[in-house]
Design brief:
Helix content is 58%, strand content 0%. By secondary structure, it is an all-alpha fold. The protein has 2 domains: 4-75; 79-151, no CATH class. The chain is elongated. The two termini are 18 Å apart.
Length: 159
């Protein structure tokens, strides 16, 4: 996943190339943009695409980080490999959800615990299934991302 400073730098550069009213980038300005992008579901691809989408509309004011975040929230999870990976990571703690399977088309079922396992201990059973789910994700990660992207809605490639 890209760092927030890489995202801010790419988005700011695209905005400045399009809009002459955007001030020259400074370290402080890029760090401020990066701080707003920190912890958001955002990669370089989405940020640059958001800038392009914003300026395709007539009579726009200079873009702000909030505009970029608002636009990216409407983008599909399959808009970039980074975003798919973040989605899989976010859902990797939910072994009983079909969310990852629905996105990738790869099936997973919780395995039966080993003999002697206390299946009445719900917490231990969930821990067992969670560990198995994460191993399954690790083994299939590359394939999962590729399948999600092939079934999804890709964005334009950044310049």
């Amino acid at each position: 996943m890209s760092t927030s400073i890489e995202i801010a730098t790419a988005a700011y550069a695209m905005a400045a190339a399009i809009d002459q009213s955007i001030p020259a980038p400074t370290k402080m300005r890029l760090q401020a943009w990066a701080a707003l992008f920190e912890g958001q579901d955002l990669g370089v691809t989405e940020a640059v695409q958001a800038v392009k989408d914003y300026y395709r509309q007539p009579n726009r004011f200079p873009i702000k980080p909030g505009d970029i975040l608002a636009i990216t929230r409407t983008m599909p999870v399959t808009s970039s490999p980074e975003r798919v990976e973040a989605f899989i990571d976010r859902w990797s703690v939910h072994p009983y959800s079909r969310t990852i399977q629905d996105l990738t088309g790869i099936e997973w079922s919780p395995p039966d615990p080993p003999k002697g396992f206390d299946v009445d201990d719900a917490e231990k059973l969930r821990e067992f299934h969670l560990a198995a789910f994460r191993k399954w994700i690790a083994r299939n990660h590359t394939r999962m991302v590729a399948l999600a992207l092939s079934n999804g809605e890709p964005l334009e490639l950044p310049l």
